[in-house]
Fold Excinuclease ABC subunit B.
Amino acid sequence: MRLLTALCLAAAPAAHAWDFTADPICTIWHGTDSAEMVVTYDPARAVPYAISVTLADRTWPDTAPYAIRFDGPRGFVISTDRHVLSDDGAAVIASDTGFENVLKGLEANIVASPLLGNMAVAIPLSDAAPAVAKFRDCTVTGLS
């Protein structure tokens, strides 16, 4: 019975892994029990890069600035006051014409913590680098 359980677990996909897709637009995402982070690149948009963090069971405060703290060997903080909340307040979205700092933070650190007002949520980055590499390749080739 233990062998059967071990085989089933080995065949199951890794829980909470970073994922990538190029269809219909370049996207990487990661979900935890408390939040989901999604980074997109859509060359058809004037501001092609976006990052959203959607909370599972609460809403973000309507305040500024919005920041993401990257903790790890190359830690840093980025912030903006050009963010929006979803209609229900569960998601905070920031868009820009470039995301090099976001991508560097995701691939080179241990945790990303989106911060808004007095709220923060920790997103583990332990397996983000391969998905970020695929995302970078996708944005270079302009797949959409």
Summary: The radius of gyration is 16 Å. The chain has a mean pLDDT of 88. The chain is about 25% helix and 35% strand. Helices lie at 2-11, 100-108, 128-141.
